[in-house]
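User: Okay, second chain of the day. Same drill as before: sequence in, structure tokens out.
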Amino acid sequence: MRLELTKTYLNALPFQNKVQWASVHAAIWILLAVLGTGMSLRLDWSISHQSFFSDHQYWRGLSSLFAHANIEHLLSNLFMLAPLSFFLTKYYGAWRTWFSAITGGVLTNIIVISDYHHEVKLLGISGIVFFMWGYWLAMYFMIERRETWIRRIMKASMIYIVLLIPSEFNPQVSYLAHGVGNVLGLLFGLMTYALNHKKLRSYDQWEIIYEPEDFQESASAHFILE
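Assistant: Same drill. Structure tokens below.
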């Protein structure tokens, strides 16, 4: 006889009714990035060590998240921002996604520019994108316990290799922002799970499986515990 985890929070609930809601919020993320890029082509919405720490223009911590250097820069970030914002909103709610991502993005920019030369400017939403990846992977690793921890690590590693680790070096890309954003996302995800683990685990469904040797005549029997 053994217990087997058959469903977790990620697949125990019918999330279909949240698809439209999540789609709206994903569209808002995209709209803000597009509008921010349009404004940044006319106004300087970037953040730098000089503007933030010396000139005390603290609003740049937020404005720089939605500003982009050009359309190519914007599209490269929207490629992952759209699905990530959709799934995070769908499974973990709008307010948690917005608060965590914006907070993580602002912190990422502040940490990164504190290490940069005073005149180096930073802009773009990639810090939030990598934060979202870290948040999603941390929550997935902690919740999806139907798979062994080795298998979960292997899946997360494939995400990093295929999607997050660059295939070529671009001197204009802030890989430090990517790394800091991802680490903060992992930490926020682990913290979210720690604060909500009882609620998240309440959706677990276990199955009692009786092996054939437990019976003298019949094969295994299955019972569902909810």
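The chain has one domain: 2-225.

User: Thanks, on to the next one.
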